[in-house]
Amino acid sequence: MPSEKTSIVIIGAGAAGATIARSLSGSLNASQHDIILISPHPYHILRPASIRMVVTNANKLEDQVLVPLDKVFLKGNGRFVQGEVARIDEQGREVELTTGKKVSFDFLVLATGTKWGGPIALPLEPSKVQGFIDEKRREFKTAKNILLVGGGSVGIELAGELRDLSPDTEITIVHREKLLLNSTYPDKMRKYIQEQLEGRQIKVIVGDSVDAPTPGPHKGTITTSRGKRLSPDLIVHAWGGRPNTEVIAASLGSDVLTERGLVKVKPTMQLEGRTNIFAAGDIVNWEEQKMIMKAQGHGAVVVKNIISLLAGKPTKAVYKGSMEAIIVTNGKESGVSYLPFLWGLVFGSWFSAMVKSKGLMISMGRSTVGY
């Protein structure tokens, strides 16, 4: 390596990016290596907890969910650059921000995460985030009949939070699949969470859909594809996000992505044909559900392989996947958990509330960035 500092740039401060930045900062010598974390927000967002944050102002959750990045680097070994990436110059080894600022790299880690829709799609401009949160809280508080389009984990958890907020609001989930969630999980678990929701007077319509109605306050009726008539006064898009990879494709070429917009990676988490560029987190094309623990697993492989390359050694660490476990909350006191051991273990409210529903794992999430 050259005698000057080696620059390692990480784009994205989600679970993968924050894990990589923190781990590298504790392993590398600051006199030899420059670790730079780039993100449009000056904080790490605890996405699972953000669902409760946008529903209620109880405990002012934004102070816990939007975690500052001032402690992310161990021993102060690294620096944070706030900004949105406009272009990646692979040949010149530079990342250009929308402000025109350029950041040079020797190694680049792509951890741009998911582009969300609906109530957890926080604005990129930090100055607009609190206003967005307050607006969502007002909408949910005043609505009398809420339609949630999408019955994955976001829709389920949002429904539970809304029921906690108001015992009288009419809440309906419409989901395309035959059962809630998706076929990664066993039917018994998917049926269990539906029974839980219906036990809280939340209406669940599965195997049906609506034609992407405009989200927000609504007047009039909506007819599902199977002829059910609904009369919501608030429509919420609650489906999953999509990979935030547009800049990657525009900069590195569309051939680095799959048809679904995911980054093609080798088990070493390197891009095909590129030794010095890695990807991790929700954007990679690994066949698994997108979750925080998996993003952190990607990050551990990236860190080991960058350290190997810096030492002049080949990349040997590989990602081998992770078990498909999940905890889905249903408000503060309820939920369903699935662990893929033995014949597949399904746990109900007591276990789910103890592990996740009550505290949303906020303390664990904050520790990712040093809090």
UniProtKB/TrEMBL annotation:
Entry keyword set: FAD, Flavoprotein, Oxidoreductase
Gene3D superfamilies per record: 3.50.50.100
InterPro entries found in the cross-reference section: FAD/NAD-bd_sf (IPR036188), FAD/NAD-binding_dom (IPR023753)
Transmembrane intervals: none
Domain of life: Eukaryota
Domain FAD/NAD(P)-binding: start-end pairs: 7-295
Family membership: Belongs to the FAD-dependent oxidoreductase family.
Protein name (Swiss-Prot/TrEMBL): FAD/NAD(P)-binding domain-containing protein
